[in-house]
Amino acid sequence: EPLIPYEHFCNVCTDIFLDRRLILRHTLELPAVEVGTGTAQFKEDLGNFHIKEQLTERLSLPHHHVNDHLGANRLEVQFFDRSKNIQVTVEFSSGDNENRIRITDVKGKLNRFWLKLAANENEHVYGGGEQFSYFNLRGHRFPMWAREQGVGRNKSTIITKLADLIAGAGGDYHTTYWPQATFVSDKLYFAHLEYSAYSVLDFSAATYHELELWGEFTEMVLHMRTAPTWMGLVENLTSFFGRQPTPPQWLLKGAVIGLQGGSDRVIDVFNSLKQQEVKISSIWIQDWSGKIMTSLGKRVYWDWQWDPKMYPGLKSHIKRFREDFDVRFLAYINPHVIRGSNMFNESDKNGYFIKSKSTGKTQVVDFGEMECGTVDLTNPKAYEWYKQVIKDMLKLGFSGWMADFGGEYLPVNDAVFFDETPSTQMHNLYSQMWAKLNREAVEEENKVNDTFIFMRSGFGQSPGYTMTSWAGDQNVDFSYADGMASVIPAALSLGMSGMGIHHSDIGGYVSLICMVRTEELILRWAELSVFTPIMRTHEGNRPYRNWQVYTLNSTTKSFARLTSLYTRLAPYHTAVVEETASRGIPAQRPLFLHYPNDPTTYDIKYQYMYGPDILVAPVFLEAQHEWSVYLPPDHWVYLWNGTEIDVKASADGIGRNVRVNAEIGNPPVFYRKTSDWKTLFETFVKG
Fold first, then answer.
1. What is the 3-state composition of the chain as percent helix, strand, coil, each rounded to the nearest 5?
2. Residues 265-309 pLDDT 10s
3. Residue of 164, 473, 505, 598 marked active site
4. Any catalytic annotation for residue 57?
5. Model confidence over 215-247: pLDDT tens digits?
6. Boundaries of each Glycoside hydrolase family 31 TIM barrel domain copy (predicted)?
7. Choosing from 186, 376, 408, 482, which is the catalytic residue?
8. What architecture is domain 6-241?
9. Is 404 part of the annotated catalytic residue set?
């Protein structure tokens, strides 16, 4: 049997299979390939892209010819329209545990391409990078374009409407920092589109999935693999990209505490938290390079050098805290440099920034009352220079940093790159290059296993370079689209895209005049974070208006208990992330990975398995004292009181819903009675 079996019916219909799965169906009535021409307008404003297309022509290619004389592992299909003299040749190939679909020849002046993959009406599809609104992607279109996720992300809410008045910053269900043209199907295959220009994953049709490509689509390659099980499929997916290393063990000694405001304030708050027995692994000082005030609030001064006026004695403090308290320090960096700074002047003089096509000089981008240049990572000298900037943070004593941003703010209309890659192709790729640069810096210093780098942006091969991810800038509220709830499908979708170690800012980040963080929100978010690989706080963009873990002694006491629970789970955390590093199974994983025979699990997006044995159902709405939890068929134990619930499968394999107490500090969490970690979990009943 050939590696690419197909069924061909008199030049009218062809079905192509992959490991007995129907992958592509071409008929005269519904051709698998369409082409066209069009123009696009990309308008960028503070990282928010407003994309308009003028489609000139869209043509179906109804006729086709199959060439199966290329060997057992290759199949070539010409799709054409006789009347238009247009033809596209698509090659299907197999080998080395991988299957590829690629375009080998195009006749005609075209810059739009659509490929339909066969689908079942009830098929579930997951992935697409980091998706905050939907976990099952069926029924929706997802543009693959890096941008700000937006503030509100729901066009029906007041917050989104207000944000849209400023730079169109409200966002939508699909806007994301980490778009990735990767998806997995419950037919047990994954597909990864290797194409960096604008594209769309369209899952809105009942009988097919459509890939839409803009630009020079002859560069497209679609990689596909199958597996007999979900676990095997995820292992195949992550072996394709490369897996994340195990985070450093010191992270499990407590929470990462985000503080700012200078040495005196940081030390004062730290001492207060320690006095109240908060477990702390590290202090994250994002303003180590200085501060600047804007209408958004207090922001970091983007000149990546230590500000000795704000943090006098920083190097000695870093050394002393590590020796006396076993506490590390973390920093902040991104690939942009503020105009007027020493680093900007140096980079500008050496030609290390992305250039403006219209002026031939450094392209300056507005980041919200901050004008900056962006390091051109396609320039080898600029790449090595910025790598040294990162290494200098290690030499100062930092044990990690937030590597913020990526390609979100890269304009496409006026940008010129050193290697002459078109800006429409480099926009998404930049996030991947930024991750690669950070990874190389710590690898060359032999500090991968001791350094904590967290990133929000990604694309393409980013999972193989990124060490840990975080969910970006959520609102400080309980909203579904942009609040605490949204980080759950974000973690699950990114995990099914190959990035398995994820966390979020405890309490969210974005605060507006009408929206401030409450004590309830920060504690609910903290209790969720106990059951993730990393527990990290953020003071937000308006620290003094938001509730913090140190605002009241009672808040600190509650938070201290949660940090103790997090550290108590350290052996289990270690086992979970080691499985992510060795097998690629995400730390926070959908229920169907462990309960594939339960059809209900395929539509659950606000619960997750943490590792193989813990089921977490976070309380993401305010003023809740009880919570409904779905339990798949298994023998479950409630973590907080030891109550056992033996859930028997119904005739169709379904488990059942239960209601549990959900007071703040005791989120709905169950574990499997047969777990090897049962003895550890039983200690939670005792306090």
1. 25, 30, 45
2. 999 999 999 999 999 999 999 999 999 988 877 799 999 999 999
3. 473
4. no
5. 989 889 999 999 999 999 999 999 999 999 999
6. 261-572
7. 408
8. Sandwich (2.60)
9. yes
